[in-house]
Amino acid sequence: MSRRTRKIRIAVCIKQVPDTSELQIDPETNTLIRQGVEAVLNPLDEFAIEAGLRLREALAGELTAFTMGPQQASEVLEKALAMGADHGILLCDKAFAGADTWATSLTLARALKQNGPFDAIFAGKQAIDGDTGQVGPGIAAHLGIPQVTNISEVVSADEEGVEVKRMLDTGTAHLRAAFPVVLTALKEANEPRLPTLAGRLRALHSSAQTSSAETLGLSAEDTGLNGSPTRVVKIDVPRPARKRKTIEGPPASAARNLFTHLQEDGCLLK
After folding, report:
1. Could you tell me the pLDDT band of residue 38, with boundaries at 50, 70 and 90?
2. Is residue 152 a contact partner of residue 168, using CB atoms and an 8 Å limit?
3. Residues 56-103: pLDDT tens digits?
């Protein structure tokens, strides 16, 4: 048996998202209004945390969770710690507000580099409030390291890299990625564990490290809205253009009425 020469270092990037379907938009910046809205851990990030924890357990490594957001975003770090993460780092600064995926991935990449190096960096496929799926690949681009997206399974791992299955439109690719690498996990990758009581108690007595734009060496031109090359210039709320008809009554009668309405509207041949 070969002797272990170093500790594998793993990072997971997670996000706090609004826990609501009724989002409000700031009319001046066209960004989400998060104040006063209950927030939760992005559901897809739980699979990234679990993948990171399993890799840490397989290689006897160390897992650090990162998140960027206001002070309340430390709540998702507490959940990651309760699930088993070793450390939590909060990137919190008013200068980070309004960041697009470029500025967000740049900020996270700078924090990962400053606190690294890390062998494996996990992220969820995408965040449910933006649905872009760009932050994980953006981190890899800023760090200049390989990436493997849409991971459906981590098959095996050793000190040099991981073997994974990657979901494609037409099947699955089985490949090996050498460290360092960024991996974005799908919900098919695993079943996230529940936080334990011991983990919750440990999270309550642990404080996340906080980093600002200054401590990361980032200028105001690189972060937040100022550092975002993309802008939301216009937002339209979809409005249904179709006419609606409500059909009531017993099933047999309602079915006949529905059939008649479909014929009248030209949807069926008479």
Report:
1. confident
2. no
3. 999 999 999 999 999 999 999 999 999 999 999 999 999 999 899 999
Contact 12, 80 (CB under 8 A): yes
If one counts every other C-beta atom within 10 angstroms of the C-beta of residue 18, the result is: 17
Contact 183, 157 (CB under 8 A): no
For residues 175-201, one letter each, b for 16 or more C-beta atoms within 10 angstroms of the residue's C-beta and e for the rest, the string is eebebbbbbbbbeebbebeebeeebee
For residues 147 and 183, the answer to whether their CB atoms sit within 8 Å is yes
- The letter for the amino acid at 19 is D
As a whole number of angstroms, the distance between CA 63 and CA 81 comes to 9
Q: What sign for the dihedral angle of Cα 10, 186, 14, 85? A: negative
Residues 6+ positions from 218 with CB-CB distance below 8 Å: 95, 106, 107, 110, 227
Please answer whether residues 223 and 93 qualify as being in contact, where contact means their C-beta atoms are separated by less than 8 angstroms. Answer: yes
Angstrom distance (rounded) from CA 96 to CA 78: 21
**Helix axes 197-204 and 74-83, enclosed angle (nearest 10):** 140
The CA angle 253-256-261, to the nearest 5 degrees, is 125
In this prediction, residue 131 has a pLDDT band, given cuts at 50, 70 and 90, of confident
Is this model's pTM higher than 0.70 or not? yes
Length of the chain: 270
User: Taking each helix axis from N to C terminus, what angle separates 74-83 and 45-59, rounded to the nearest 10 degrees?
Assistant: 40
pLDDT in tens, 177-193: 999 999 999 999 999 99
